[in-house]
Design goal:
The protein is built from eleven helices and three strands. By secondary structure, it is mainly alpha-helical.
Length: 273
Amino acid sequence: MLTLVQAIAAGAAAGCLGSLLGLGGGIFLVPFFQFALGLPFATAAGISLMSVIGTSVAVSTMKAGREFTNARLAITLQLFTALGATAGSVLLRYDLISNRTAERVFGITAALIAVVLLRRLDARVTTSGATAETGSIGGRYFDPDRQETVAYRVRRTPVALTVSFAAGIVSTLSGIGGGVLIVPALNSWCGVPLRVAAATSTFVIGVTAVPGVIERFPFNDAAAPALAAAAVIGVLIGSRAGAKLGPQMPVRALKMMLSGILLIVAVVYLVLK
């Protein structure tokens, strides 16, 4: 019972932070299941991916999530993340990559993305005006920081698609949902505001996680479904809190929070592991 309570609490924290940052919560739950509960990495990744689906569904159906989601961009990215996730499942199915290699991929990815975010901490990618040109897959929304409607264009679309494919692979290998790549890439390189990138990523990662669940989830372990259910319950609770907090937090604070979390994860998997 204590383990289930811990899983609910961890899921709530992951859901809240995942909702704020568009990460699905997997980047927090994989270390929790592995180090706090002592589960093997592959098992932790499988259970985490199940909770990623829960985060995606919860946030995408909330009003706050829908306001910032760019549906046209999400559908475009979703195709490439699904292809990447399928490629990752092939790597696992035929033992073309080890769990330790997957852990290193996890840590290196976290470190690189943290550096990118910190270098562009104060970058602004929106323009004022409700009638500004947005292009075919850009958009506009009400910015709570500036208290006005702003517009943005999606730049370097090939970069976004390539990163999405890579995110699908990383999602299946590491159990993190892929948002850890998609959100910083959209914000730093493709001109998408952080709030929009986070909401759009959350919409995408639910589908991305499905191939990983099929390959990673320990269906033969009687305790795994209970842990996954507990984590999802926590995620649903935490996601609602994150959706309410998100519009009230400055973008700079969200970027610093995301960078700090990524650096901690990188240290755990590259230095302490």
